[in-house]
Amino acid sequence: MSGVKQDAPPVPARRALDAARAAVYRELLRQMVLVRHFEEKAGEAYAQGKIGGFCHLYIGQEAVAVGSLAALRPDDYVFTGYREHAHALVRGISARAVMAELCGKATGCSGGKGGSMHLFDVERRFLGGHAIVGSHIPLAAGAAFACKYRGTDQVAMCYFGEAAANIGAFHETLNMAALWKLPVVFVCENNRYGMGTALERASSVYDISQRSCSYQMAAETADGMDVVAMHGAAERAVTRARTEQVPTLLEARTYRYMGHSMADPIHGHYRTKEELEEQKLRDPIQMLRGQLQASGLLGEKEYAELEAGVRAEVEDAVSFADQSPEPDPRELFTHVVHE
Amino acid sequence: MEALSPTMEEGRVVEWLKHEGDAVVAGDVLAEVETDKAVMELQARGDGVLRKVLAPSGSTVEVGKLVAVIAGPDEDIAALIGGAAVPPRPATPPPAGPTASPPPTTQPMAPVAAGARHLKASPLARRLAGERGIELGSVAGSGPGGRVIRRDIDTLAAAPAPGVAVRGGGAAASAASFEDVPLTQIRKTIARRLAESLGPVPHFFLTTDVDMDRAWDAREALNGLGEEPRVSFNDLIVKVVATALTRHRECNAWWQGDAIRYFNDVHLGMAVAVDQGLITPVIRHADRKTLRQIATESRNLVERARARKLKPEEYTGATFSISNLGMFGIDEFTAIINPPESGIIACGAITQQPVVREGMLVVGRRMRLTMSCDHRVIDGATGARFLGTVRRMLENPLAMVW
Amino acid sequence: MPTLTYRDALNHALREEMERDPDVFLMGEEVGVYQGAYKVSRGLLQQFGERRVMDTPIAELGFAGIGVGAAMVGLRPVIEFMTWNFALLAIDEVVNSAAKLRYMSNGQLSVPIVFRGPGGAALQLGAQHSQALESWYAHVPGLKVVAPATPYDAKGLLKSAIRDNNPVVFLEGEMLYNLKGEVPEGEYTIPLGQAEVKRVGKDVTVICHSKTVATAEKAAQQLAADHGVEAEVVDLRTLRPLDTEAILASVRKTNRCVIIEEGWPFCGIGAQVCDEIQHGAFDHLDAPVERVTGADVPMPYNRSLERAAKPSVDAVIRAVRRAAYLD
Prior knowledge:
- The structure holds three protein chains of three kinds.
- Chain A contains eleven helices and eight strands.
- The mean pLDDT of chain A is 92.
- Chain A is an alpha/beta fold.
- Chain B is globular.
- In chain B, helix 6 crosses helix 7 (291-306) and helix 6 crosses helix 9 (380-395).
- By secondary structure, chain B is of the alpha+beta class.
- Chain C is globular and about 60 Å long.
- Chain C is an alpha/beta fold.
- Chains in contact: A-C, B-C.
- The A-C interface holds A 77, 79, 110-114, 118, 120-122, 127-132, 135-147, 149-150, 156, 168-169, 171-173, 175-176, 179-180, 334-338 and C 25, 51, 54, 56-57, 59, 61-75, 77, 92-93, 96-97, 101-110, 112, 141-142, 144, 164-166.
């Protein structure tokens, strides 16, 4: 309740996973592994100069996107900030289309004109991809507003970091979302650091989900390193939005292994190597894998196959991007206005 | 020997800078000639070879007498050397238009070649002139700054004046009636500094008429001693002004914004015309130097000023300045103060005039001095007293050592 | 033909478009229960209900963003800013989201939104309530910017703006809302991107928009009556995209031009128009292009100072005389 720093409770060594949902869990694991590999390859491509500008990697946070997006329907809307490769992949944009976009190729999901921070796929209701911190929070509420306006039971899900919970757009939007009862889930990916500033130094309240009190909004804090817990929390919030048409502020406590972006050091200035190593002990992939194995739902061989499949998919995406053409120069002037 | 000033009667060849056998082009400085006022340059008026020098360095020649011959390398000049006096050619301006030779010195910025056109005309007027075959340069512009505008073309087309060049179509323009020359660095500096002066500095002006008879005789007598260097009027004025300043320290000062700096030393700046401009070399401690030192130094400074070889310490730091346009026949003029100095004396020509002496009309030599004063430092009475001292010393040179 | 105020012309446009298309809705501060801060939305809440006429808290950035989000998924929001001075708080959503989403998504998204409200000065409202910032928006590719001067133009242009699939910045004026003019009863729209010659003349082109159109017309009358000059008044109506052809056609005819605008001179709309003219009609210019603008100062409160800060009929006449070499 106060500003005292609190960590999420440790995961029990053995959680009995429901065998009936084995396929679901294996798919969650596969998606997390896909994201992990993809992000590692993206980091490599950036270091090779194939990706320019900014590149913000999601490594360590996989459980948040994977667990929460699993609670959505295909016709729900997704809005993210700029640390979005994971969300794009999990939402169903092919690894090829994402990697090609990062490399600026014409085959990218934004035709090479968006880049890492502006991935879009309207068919999959993936509406970006926004680079101004917190700017997309009202957009998500707007989409939710449209769902309610039209009388559908669609839902909008909005991802942002904990530092965005300090910006004006966040507060204005949460007020209106609660006031007007909009079907939107605000997922705050609290990885403890807004670029180089620790949460304690940026926020008067450490517990982000507390901010919901200002707006009389439902809230929950979930362990963002535990994909099963994430999934559960997301399902609760999505159901609330779909059936009661009210928003939820869902705080996911997570941790990023890499720096804020490829231009940021992994540790040293604002966090210690020790802290990083300690957090890695709760790696989301290893935790779920361990639980699946412990529950007898995933053997070594199956895991090896899963990993091999993911590696192949990511390698394929990389060569696809390498071989794809640059956009036609005339594309500079297309799609500025709707003709 | 050219009349390098309207009042010049004779000139002394100080030094030949070109020698027999040298190829010369129009504009080259052939020699330095001392007039009654200053050391002037004798320039070649045409191209050729300097075949013969007739007036050696140091000689004094009457205006109009032959001093040298420039001719083709094989041309027969025997008749000329025979001694026939060649009447001095009036100074002709260099031919205008695109065929003019390029300026001899390189300037740091010369974006437009000499002879290019900077005609002010509206784009519409230009187009209409082109369409109607009218020579734009010959149309008087009634717009601001002489801009040719549509109605000027329309009026012209309605009643073409005689003499207006109407092109036959497509031919290049004939001789220009003017020429724009881009500013050299020296011109820009002059413009900037003096514009900075006249605005903020509250000038007022004092004029006095000086009886130069005694000074004239004194100079003649001194130079008649035959010692080098010969003293010019300018040298005398430098010495007089410098001495007067030691007795009127309140005029030997700089405006410093929040204070006035009164100098104990006198460093006198002399305005010198150089190629394309003006520079003020400084004779330091002019009050303490003899006439001979002043004469030598001023000669040296002027020469190096013209050759652009002055070091900054040689043209800065003056506490007072003088400017002399007498050799150009100017009777009087007002000079602009060089900030942060607070005064400048402008000397006119020494002319023979009818004057009244002891009730009788006689011919006397007079020179007008005009002093420009910065009223923040010097007020009327102060300036008048100083100028009075200058006049007294010129009218009675021994007053300098009184 | 009936006469309507500019305010009512806008009201009718909103009403007609909301009747025509169920996806059109209005959102802003005081638009509903209060009937609109300037009464532009009078009666709309009663007719269309709370779902389509939404009162917002004071949260420009928030509700502008909500509007953009709704537009992204296919609704056609009309977002009212109580004045364009406050829209500065929302400029991130207008410029970074609305204007760019189509381009960044490579054509997958469109943002059919209208941001509207009064801009520029009224009377003695002070520096923070008197800004004419149309050039800020006209600067941005992806936006359209419209500034109608008359009731007829206001209605026709607002209808077109709502039907346009692009984000449109629609600039009205507190001093215009009471202006009366003829507005036909039937259905009509005015295309965006078209200027209009409000007065034909042969001696000088006077280019204007919004409140300065009335100034231009008054000046034109005086110029004809007292100075023997026939001015052609060109009302830009749309600032982005600019109707360059109309501008050039007029200047080619008259050979001289005066541009009037309410905003500040530096990088104002007039500066862009001037560039179009010097480039496209260079050989037709008999004089430099003159500009009459608001004074380059924050707007003062005092009545006389404020009057002096606004472009006046006298200033226009002086500028025309300069351009015509009459002085």
